[in-house]
Design goal:
It is a single chain. By secondary structure, the chain is of the alpha+beta class. Helix content is 29%, strand content 22%. The protein is globular and about 25 Å long. The structure holds iron/sulfur cluster (SF4).
Length: 63
């Protein structure tokens, strides 16, 4: 399982990077990005939490 951030939806509030900093990072464009070579398993349930708490539904699961 992987996740990605839709840059057209992200409003850059940073909550995903706070919830799961091992996977998400805020960059100079003001948007969240999935870290290169991120280990998605490291966040465990926090990854699901980050997806569910994104206020605009910008984090998308790719199976
Ligand atoms: S929680 Fe959603 S809107 Fe907020 S920074 Fe992350 S992807 Fe963007």
């Amino acid at each position: 399982m992987k996740v990605r951030v839709d840059p057209d939806l992200c409003i850059g509030d940073g909550s995903c990077a706070e919830t799961c900093p091992e996977v998400f990072e805020m960059r100079d464009d003001g948007l969240a990005h999935v870290k290169k070579d991120a280990d998605f398993a490291v966040c465990g349930e926090r990854l699901t939490e980050a997806v569910e708490n994104c206020p605009v539904g910008a984090i998308i699961f790719d199976e």
